[in-house]
Amino acid sequence: MIFLRNSELAPFQHRIELKRTYQFDRFGFGSAASSQAPLSADPNVEYVDADTLAPGCLLRNWKEGDWFIPLGMQEKKKLSDFFIDEKIPLFQKMAIPILVSNGEIVWICGMRLDERHKITPKTVRILKLEYTPRDAHIE
Predict the structure, then answer these.
(1) What is the model's pLDDT at position 1?
(2) Which end of the chain has fewer CB within 10 Å, C or N?
């Protein structure tokens, strides 16, 4: 049986700078400039157009009313609907970090990139994002 501490369901928000590495209680996160964007089978690594991001970003959990444009789509989707479609339970969705820049969701860490931040032929600067999840505490 898995028991979660209240702190694992508590809202979180971390202000971060790009091109740095961070270790938080629940996860690690890093970003670095990249000269290329290779296809990766690792869902915890993503490449984005660096020029679509503000210098300071937020890593926070899901909030009611959040929406994004999933990679490959043209229409926005509520994050709550995305989590339902992906069959993500409440305790898990509260723990998933969301990278936000200028109020826009950039990446649901380990899950899906927003279409507005993907690499395109016009991309000049590439940023590699890496998320390191930590397992839930088992007691």
Answers:
(1) 45
(2) N
DSSP sequence for 107-121: EETTTEEBGGGS--T
Mean pLDDT of the 88-99 span: 93
Q: How do strand 27-34 and strand 112-113 relate by DSSP bridges?
A: unpaired
The CATH number of the structural domain formed by 12-133 is 3.50.40.10
SS (H, E, C) the chain: CCCCCHHHCCCCEEEEECCCEEECCCEEEEEEEECCCCCCCCCCEEEEEHHHCCCEEEEECCCCCCEECECCCCCCEEHHHHHHHCCCCHHHHCCCCEEEECCEEEEECCCEEEHHHCCCCCCCCEEEEEEEECCCCCC
pTM score: 0.89
Whole-angstrom Cα distance, residue 75 to residue 7? 34
In the chain, where the domains are located: 12-133
